[in-house]
């Protein structure tokens, strides 16, 4: 795993640059924080926007950007990383590295760094076997640069031989070997140690009288799995749950409530937290005047009408700006149509930072089911996640929370 590891990925200009997008995914799935430097030639193959969306971070390319240099200079970029990775490493960037040139941001960062560097060459077979390249590779290896690949195979230029960039999975595994491996280290395994989390889960029950209530089909599976995943990553978790039949997650403080009012009170009682995740299906309305005793039916009398009033919005309340606001507030959007558009709108309306949007139309079997297909909506854009088990969604979300809470303050403020 690469939990909490920071990788600076330099994307140079080669046809293999598209594989760097997949590499970012693989690294983030392993819990790494990836930041990109894109060369001018690299930008001809992949856009800064795709890199930004996948890394959820700013993409750096300009050597003389006034804002970048004041916020994050080339020295800082390398200082903030555990490893520099050049993928694809073109003939040009390898030659510039060997010569010690510093004529753009990528080469300057590579010259200025004291961190380990992994390069994944990608070029035409004749370029790779050229005497100049052979000498450059030898020089770089002598200086301690680690190489992965290139692989043998068919190339975009219709030739065959060594020159294909290694596959993203191979590169990710090499990175794991270089800087992962501290599986037993407390900070790598428990990136949320010292952080406090609040999770709401399950339905609420709104009493009509002492025996009847309004509620919904929420099973609490997703919310409970999130509480468990956050605890697994070391957070101190309070789970405020409506009535559910799933078991209490281990290592989590569980507060059981019935109504939305009680859920809000329990959330406020939980004190200051670093992250709040509202996964509960809170009833939007409650009876305006719940009866103190059981409402009796009377022969010949029409059924009573139900007067409803709005419940407090717990997510919106927790999202309100102020000293008590958690650094990260995450809501859920259960939608049956226009999933992404409605969820983007909900993020703004509720004032939260992220929305996990899921399609709960009957055909998906999300309610009460084991699997979930979600989109994560952040200020940076929309991430489409594959269909995963609710435990996997929870672990992936907890990993994303750990990354976000682990970011330096200056980066969070710039977002
Ligand atoms: N939520 C809340 N308190 C409420 C209502 C909702 O905390 N009184 C939270 C839920 O936990 C969830 C998000 O708000 O994180 C869902 O918002 P909601 O407005 O209820 O949207 P949907 O349930 O998705 O449905 P709709 O917008 O169609 O009403």
Query: Portion of residues in helices?
Result: 25-40%
Could you state the oligomeric state of the chains shown?
A: single chain
Write down the CATH topology of the largest domain. Rossmann fold
- Which ligands does the model contain, each kind named once? cytidine-5'-triphosphate
In this structure, how is the largest beta sheet organized?
8 strands, mixed
What would the principal axes of the Cα set say about the shape?
elongated
What is the alpha-carbon Rg in Å? 26 Å
Q: What does this 3D model show about the protein?
A:
- Helix content is 35%, strand content 23%.
- By secondary structure, it is of the alpha/beta class.
- The chain folds into 2 domains: 180 residues, 3-Layer(aba) Sandwich (Rossmann fold); 225 residues, CoaB-like (Rossmann fold), CATH 3.40.50.10300.
- Strand 17, helix 14 and strand 18 form a beta-alpha-beta unit.
- The protein is elongated and about 100 Å long.
- The two termini are 27 Å apart.
- The model has no long low-confidence stretch (mean pLDDT 90).
- The structure holds cytidine-5'-triphosphate.
- The site of cytidine-5'-triphosphate has 15 residues, from helix 13 and strand 17.
Write the layout of secondary structure elements.
Blueprint: E1 6-11, H1 17-29, E2 33-38, H2 48-55, E3 59-60, H3 66-71, H4 74-79, E4 83-89, H5 91-99, H6 105-112, E5 116-121, H7 125-129, H8 131-142, E6 146-147, E7 151-154, E8 160-164, H9 168-179, H10 186-189, E9 196-201, E10 206-207, E11 213-214, H11 221-232, E12 236-241, E13 253-256, H12 260-269, E14 275-278, E15 285-287, E16 308-310, H13 314-319, E17 328-335, H14 339-350, E18 354-359, E19 371-372, E20 374-378, E21 381-384, E22 388-389, H15 390-405, H16 409-414
Parallel strand pairs: 1-2, 1-4, 2-3, 4-5, 5-6, 9-12, 9-14, 12-13, 14-17, 17-18
Antiparallel strand pairs: 7-8, 10-11, 15-16, 18-20, 19-22, 20-21
Helix pairs in contact: 1-2, 1-9, 5-8, 11-15
The protein binds cytidine-5'-triphosphate.
Residues 200, 260, 278, 280, 282, 284, 311, 313-315, 331-334, 346 line the site of cytidine-5'-triphosphate.
